[in-house]
């Protein structure tokens, strides 16, 4: 088990991480998700031993490794831009970790080559060992980087934006494939990403970070369905925001009562967040939000409807099942919000 | 507007500029270079080789090679160490170090020589101590080597710093994470990454080490057969109106320059290496 206790780190006066604690379970696939500058990469580097915290402890299986360097932590690290050794063949890259071992622990050359070939087979690059990194595609390079990291039999696999430099199609394929490899090997894996879709699709649990603190830790389901903060709600998935005022457990947009669960939300300004698919068209007016359709287009199996709400500066986006005819532009619709989440706001901003 | 457009619009300007550039290069570079060889061979091939093989000339050639053989490796080691620490680590005083590396480029070589005389000369700061211990630096080979090292100090470091900066730390960190020691990382990852830049820096450093005149002239003392390098020997021969011999030795330096250019071009073409710093 990997355990991070109260990790803090500053770059100059800028706090990159502020009192961060996480437990990572054995065999877990964990995503560190956040925008750039959220501290996710710094946290990954601290786990790896490529960076060191100002405060806090790093524990691997009950052993304090805070002071250990990367070489002594037995972690596999995959860099965003692969960091393959350009002057070595693919096989030599993969075998590098074994070939730099001390005499005595170092396997014979034939054995290293054999191990490299096995790993290249595992990452579906069998037979490409004689090539140089420059002769491979981006996706292939990333897989070589993974094979190289696995060659040293790490107890923990760390990936920094593993798909960041790849195009969309390759990224998707590689994503599935990485998940499969993970299930096959059962290796505890932590990866950093700014792509919420990637985090939700791949990870067992997601750690959402912003400004050096953890906003929420949970399963993709938790994160998506029950965002723990306004930031998470905004950052993960598509969200409509509606500034409302709450009085006595009832939410109002302007003077109109909106029918959502506002129990436990203190009186005052609040933000009502709802997903495009968490609404339905209603024939009633009471408790609903009236919108005027400004744009309709097909998106996969559904209609995406953009509408104007009078008194709101930005459009509302909703999904409507494509089994019904597309709503006409200019038509007035009444939206019932089936599932919304209210966040109390201290200021007057929405 | 593409260059093609430009040249078809202003053909006169295009050819005029090219002709001007060629004429300038011809008069200021090619003509003098040709003159060196013409003058060197004006007494016939035998006179030419005689001038190169007489004892003082041989001693000058030997000393020049010795100086280069010491100062180039020293500056290669220093250059790598400096570039490594500047590009891979953050530490206080980093920008100061970068500025100091540039110092030899901005100081006149004569001043550099004088500094060594003030430091190590008989009347210098360390002069009495050196005399007590029978160590000769000024007007001796060690002084020449020191002055040359000073002058050629920046070449390797200047070449490597931008290159290593651009390459970042990822490769090194990858090697370390795979269990490599610092030395293994340097030898197997960093060095191969910088080899062409290093070779480029070594070529320039070597050319300057062999060709340096000003600083060496101050500390050498011009003792024939003892402390004369090739450039100094050329000057002495010239001052004695022995033009053929002077140009013969000078032609060797010119050949060295041409060889450096050719090797430099090979490094650039063959290995696609483009040096990062704009100076030299």
Overall description:
The complex is a heterodimer of chains A (350) and B (280). Chain A is of the alpha+beta class. Chain A has helices at 40-48, 90-99, 109-122, 138-150, 168-185, 196-202, 220-225, 230-235, and strands at residues 2-11, 14-24, 29-33, 55-60, 63-64, 75-78, 156-160, 189-193, 205-210, 213-218, 240-247, 250-253, 256-258, 268-274, 279-282, 289-299, 302-308, 316-321, 332-337, 340-344. In chain A, strands 6-7-8-3-9-10 form a 6-stranded mixed beta sheet, sandwiched between helices. In chain A, α2 packs across α3 (109-122) and α2 runs parallel beside α4 (138-150). The longest helix of chain B has 34 residues, at 55-88. The two termini of chain B are 32 Å apart. Chain A binds chain B through residues 48, 50, 69-71, 75-77, 79, 81, 83-87, 96-97, 100-101, 148-149, 151-152, and chain B through 170-171, 173-181, 184, 188-189, 192-193.
Mean pLDDT across the residues of chain A is 91
* Oligomer classification: heterodimer
Give the integer mean of the pLDDT values of chain B.
87
Number of helices of chain B: 13
Radius of gyration of chain B: 23 Å
Beta-strand proportion of chain A: 25-35%
**Pairing-aware structural class of the strands and helices of chain A?**
alpha+beta
Query: Could you describe the largest sheet of chain B, including whether it forms a barrel?
Result: none
**Approximate shape of chain A:** elongated
Spans of at least 5 consecutive residues with low confidence of chain A: none
Order of helices and strands of chain A: EEEHEEEHHHEHEHEEHHEEEEEEEEEE
**Rg from alpha-carbon coordinates of chain A:** 25 Å
Query: How many extended strands of chain B?
Result: 0
Separate helix tally of chain A: 8
**Cα separation of the termini of chain A:** 41 Å
The proportion of strand residues of chain B reads under 5%
Helix and strand run of chain B: HHHHHHHHHHHHH
What's the end-to-end separation of chain B, in Å?
32 Å
Helix content of chain B: over 70%
């Amino acid at each position: 088990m990997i355990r991070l206790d109260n990790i803090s780190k500053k770059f100059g006066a800028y706090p990159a991480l502020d009192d961060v604690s996480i437990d990572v379970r054995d065999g877990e696939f964990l995503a560190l998700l956040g925008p750039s500058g959220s501290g996710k990469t710094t946290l990954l580097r601290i786990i790896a031993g490529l960076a060191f915290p100002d405060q806090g402890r790093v524990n691997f299986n009950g052993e304090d490794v805070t002071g250990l360097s990367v070489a002594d932590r037995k972690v596999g690290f995959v860099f965003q831009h692969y960091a393959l050794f350009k002057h070595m063949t693919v096989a030599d890259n993969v075998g590098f970790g074994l070939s730099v071992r001390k005499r005595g622990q170092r396997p014979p050359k034939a054995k290293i080559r054999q191990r490299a070939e096995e790993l290249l087979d595992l990452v579906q690059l069998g037979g490409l060992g004689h090539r140089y990194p420059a002769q491979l595609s981006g996706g292939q390079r990333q897989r070589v980087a993974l094979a190289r990291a696995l060659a040293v039999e790490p107890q923990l696999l760390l990936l920094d934006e593993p798909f960041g430099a790849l195009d969309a199609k390759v990224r998707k394929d590689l994503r599935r494939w990485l998940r499969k490899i993970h299930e096959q090997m059962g290796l505890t894996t932590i990866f950093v990403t700014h792509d919420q879709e990637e985090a939700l699709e791949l990870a067992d649990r997601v750690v959402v970070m912003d400004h050096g603190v953890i906003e929420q830790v949970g399963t993709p389901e938790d994160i998506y369905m029950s965002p723990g903060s306004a930031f998470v709600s905004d950052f993960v998935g598509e969200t409509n925001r509606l500034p409302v005022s709450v009085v006595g457990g009832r939410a109002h947009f302007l003077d109109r009562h909106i029918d959502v669960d506002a129990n436990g939300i203190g009186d005052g300004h609040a933000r009502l967040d709802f997903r495009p698919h968490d609404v339905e068209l209603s024939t009633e007016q009471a408790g609903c939000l009236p919108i005027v359709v400004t744009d309709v287009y097909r998106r996969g199996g559904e209609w995406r409807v953009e509408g104007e709400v009078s008194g709101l500066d930005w459009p509302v986006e909703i999904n409507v099942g494509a089994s019904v005819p597309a709503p006409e532009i200019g038509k007035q619709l009444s939206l019932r919000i089936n599932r919304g989440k209210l966040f109390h706001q201290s200021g007057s901003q929405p | 507007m593409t260059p093609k457009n430009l040249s078809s619009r202003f053909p006169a300007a295009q050819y005029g500029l090219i002709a001007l550039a060629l004429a300038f290069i011809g008069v200021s570079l090619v003509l003098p270079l040709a003159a060196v060889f013409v003058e060197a061979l004006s007494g016939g091939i035998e006179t030419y080789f005689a001038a190169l093989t007489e004892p003082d000339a041989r001693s000058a050639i030997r000393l020049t090679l010795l100086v280069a053989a010491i100062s180039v490796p020293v500056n290669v080691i220093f250059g790598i160490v400096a570039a490594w620490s500047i590009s891979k680590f953050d530490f206080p005083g980093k920008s100061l170090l970068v500025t100091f590396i540039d110092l030899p480029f901005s100081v006149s070589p004569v001043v550099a020589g004088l500094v060594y005389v003030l430091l190590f000369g008989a009347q210098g700061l360390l002069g009495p101590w050196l005399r007590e211990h029978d160590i000769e630096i000024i007007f001796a080979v060690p002084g020449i080597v020191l002055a040359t090292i000073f002058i050629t100090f920046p070449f390797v470091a200047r070449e490597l710093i931008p290159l290593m900066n651009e390459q970042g730390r990822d490769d090194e960190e990858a090697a370390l994470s795979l269990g490599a020691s610092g030395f293994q990382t340097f030898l197997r990852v960093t060095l191969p990454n910088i080899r062409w830049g290093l070779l480029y820096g070594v070529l320039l450093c070597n050319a300057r080490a062999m060709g340096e005149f000003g600083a060496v002239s101050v500390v050498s003392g011009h003792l024939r057969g003892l402390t004369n390098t090739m450039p100094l020997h050329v000057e002495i021969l010239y001052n004695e109106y022995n033009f053929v011999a002077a140009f013969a030795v000078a032609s060797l330096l010119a050949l060295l320059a041409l060889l450096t250019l050719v090797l430099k071009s090979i490094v650039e073409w063959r290995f696609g290496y483009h040096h990062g710093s704009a100076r030299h």
